[in-house]
């Protein structure tokens, strides 16, 4: 299908896609060299939403950086909350009570489902289907309502604290979450009918933007994009953190690594997240949600730690170096979106403009996370 | 050749199934909330701007000007003014201003307050024409309430 | 004042009626589209201006008229100005030959359908001019897509209409409707109906074939640089074209004005005609809010590998059956 550019060096023109373009979802700029509608080179340009989060982290005491973490990845913020708090807990050796761990996993997985739902809507909007995004928003809204009832914010949660979480969940929340799981499971068949089986959708995404396992390794692609290529790597399984080993869940994998597989992997992942939430709700013990001796001011012993979590987009890592003061000496983030974006340049060679939009959508780019 | 017709048939079928889904939703009730006329319930945990809790004994605020909230704030948006009075050199609160334009509602100040003097309000309908409209003076707001 | 010939007065009145019909229709259709889209997406659509937002499109139209038309730098100004008019005027003019009811037809040309198709193909010229003159690469890509798409889809469209014309032996719109007295052609020519309907979706640049505008790819395609009423005219033209497609489909396949008898059928047949037209337009709206957009090469493949062969076979079978 994609035979690539017909002629070379003739009629080649530059198209500046972004930083304000409907399908870059934020302020990503891509400089395209086009021959007709075929792309010769695509060069992503970042820096339009750089806010120096890492430097900010180095200049403020540990607890004050929690609010920033939600603003990195505003689509699945709980997971980033988890990343930072767990990293600092590892660095300074704070124990988290079991109930708090369960609450963390429930909220984090809810956040992952919300992120995947939003992604699905946005992806389909890129492909030109306007309606699914409103259906997925409807579902996502239920999650946001649940999370709002527990932590008071809808997007930038700032919910996790060193040694636990700031509010306990109520019986209403547990009931509401169970009801939501039931609701979402009834919606999956609808999505399948409306989207997955649709012939136009299938033709638009099958065999488009194939990331081979080799390529994925070279570029450090992680998350659903990696699993779609057939490599079963999930931080929750491979380097388990928190209490994930206690739960039964599978790592859905694709085969071809194309846009369709990335879509399918995310759809299956939502189901797995629901499974984890269900188990956590069943098992959740009573007790405090904050460690008793969580210090107000942190002065971790000098040392360094690297912590990773599986965010909605892949492996998010945080390197913290402490020099014994109340601010980190160095704070470095590894965001999955950045590595996932880097593969775009190679994928974009010789494809159509419409396919570029499909690929970008399927990689699930959240620019504030990439350009932090 | 058979595949050609099969593809067309299955494709058309998948499109019809999609159409059936959307027409079904067209006759279902709407799910959006017509904001100014209907309102969502705001959960009690909602994080709005700060407000003082009322001390049942004095009717005023519980704040003892320990400045923990000021210290814990990541965006430095709380400014407190006080005067020192009496023999015990006790701090008396004069004004407590929250710069809501810079607040990120992280909740650290509320947790830092061991006396429970401040809490989040459930006020979300905030409109103003100037930046200064969002410098909330908590002392005055408590008096008005 | 010299007495004008009655034919001239008749045409004058009917053209005024047609222009107002098109404008009114566009307004109603924009409203319907937004309402249908809203309800499909489980939201109410426009609700604020007037009861259930009925006046919303009127206000939007006023707003568009009140806006300044911005001319970007280095555009081809004459072409830039002509393009929106060219998109709108032919779409309106084509309505003169549409038979709304036995007596509500401005002119019954012998070459009715040819006249309509000739005018409809000017639409592509308008898009090309708009894209070319805008001095914007997105617009240009949109325009080029549109040209290739419209020219390709004109072939299956003509093939499907030709099959019907074989049966009627007349190009006059009125006689085509009258030929369907015993049986609507949708029953006799279901394949032609489907081909025409799909091809006309592509002709009017409606989703899932809205490649020239393709929001998520080309920002707004050929009308990226247009604002104010210039944009409004493109919009009006699009809706006029939609009604046109509905009218042609109704005339060719759905029996025109025929339906359960009403009093004064010579005039009130228009009711059935419009009902059918609106049904077709509704399904176009319904399609738009259900499907993703096809890709450009798939669009062409679909045309040349599926639509054209089917159209040709259908035409041959029709010819054979008629001959025997």
Largest interface (CB within 8 Å) is between: A-B, 33 and 28 residues
Low-confidence residue ranges of chain C = none
SSE sequence of chain C, one letter per element: HHHHHHHHHHHHH
Number of helices of chain A: 15
Radius of gyration of chain C: 20 Å
Give a written overview of the molecule:
The complex is a heterotrimer of chains A (372), B (145) and C (324). By secondary structure, chain A is an alpha+beta fold. Chain A contains 15 helices and eight strands. In chain A, the strands form three sheets. Chain A has a three-stranded antiparallel sheet. The radius of gyration of chain A is 21 Å and the shape is globular. Chain B is of the alpha+beta class. Chain B has a three-stranded antiparallel sheet with strand order 2-3-5. In chain B, a hairpin with a 4-residue loop joins strand 2 and strand 3 (90-99). The longest helix of chain B is centred in the N-terminal third of the chain and has 25 residues, at 2-26. Chain C has one domain. In chain C, 69% of the residues lie in helices and 0% in strands. In chain C, helix 1 (6-40) crosses helix 11, helix 3 (77-93) runs antiparallel to helix 5 and helix 6 (137-168) packs antiparallel against helix 9. The longest helix of chain C is centred in the N-terminal third of the chain and has 35 residues, at 6-40. Classes of the chains: A alpha+beta (372), B alpha+beta (145), C mainly alpha (324).
